[in-house]
Amino acid sequence: MSMQPKTVREQVTNQIRDDLVSGRFEAGSMLREIELASRFGVSRGPVRDAFIQLSQEGYLAYHANRGVMVRHPPNPDDRKFITSIRQQIETHVIEKGIAVLSDKSLVNVEAALDRLKVACDEGKATTIALRDIEFHESILVACGGEDMVGAWRQLCSRMLLTYTRLRDYQQTYREHFEIFTPLSARDCKATIAAIKANIK
User: How many domains does the chain have?
Assistant: First the structure.
């Protein structure tokens, strides 16, 4: 997730993603290219590209002859299953890659943690949710799990549709700091314990 989008497509994609996470669009509703293009003051091309990317990320679903629909959040049983798979992906990648985690990669993880802290301090729920996911993704990349990111993003997008853990913003930050601390020490067991405590 780009912090400084350089293209119109990136700006439109980020804004629509923010709207989806914040609940601006009702689950099951159809999104129209022409309406969003008018809202953002752009041609339909960037909106179409955003729809493709957000469908790949799992927020939207294409329906033949109908268009693009906002996906429904998972039911409680499905969410529990999705959470379990997400935990397995993150712990698998950490177990494989933490021993070779470079200092340079760790700097990127710490930068993502800093951005999460800023979001928590500002109290913007949607931004916190997105920075939360960005932090976890930075760990996957740092530990060599780039190949897992695509499938992992699909799971995260489903969880973000029902993101409800934002009652205590500083607790959100503390949980992620408690992941970063053992990660920076290359303590695999403690990092995984902190990951499991956070992903619920």
Answer: 2
The helix (H) or strand (E) run that includes residue 69 is strand 67-70
Q: Is residue 134 part of a domain?
A: yes
194: left (phi over 0), alpha (psi -120 to 50) or beta: alpha
Task: Please tell me whether the overall predicted TM-score, pTM, comes out greater than 0.85 for this model.
Answer: no
Both structure tokens of 181: 């601390």
User: Which residues, in sequence order, are bridge partners of residue 18?
Assistant: none
- Radius of gyration of the CA atoms of the chain, in A: 17
Tens-place pLDDT, residues 141-199: 999 999 999 899 989 888 887 665 556 788 999 999 999 999 999 999 999 999 999 99
* Beta carbons of 172 and 200 less than 8 angstroms apart: no
Going by their DSSP bridges, the two strands 30-31 and 60-63 should be labelled as: unpaired
Strand order, beta sheet including 67-70: 30-31, 67-70, 60-63
Q: What is the CATH number of the domain that holds 117?
A: 1.20.120.530
Does 107 lie in the same domain as 64? no
Q: Do residues 176 and 100 share a domain?
A: yes
Contact indicator for 174, 130 with CB cutoff of 8 Å: no
Residue range(s) defining the domain that contains residue 65: 8-70
Taking the C-alpha atoms of residue 174 and residue 155, their distance in angstroms, rounded to an integer, is 23
Where a domain ends, among 31, 49, 70?
Answer: 70
Q: Is residue 91 part of a domain?
A: yes
* Element spanning 149, H or E: helix 149-160
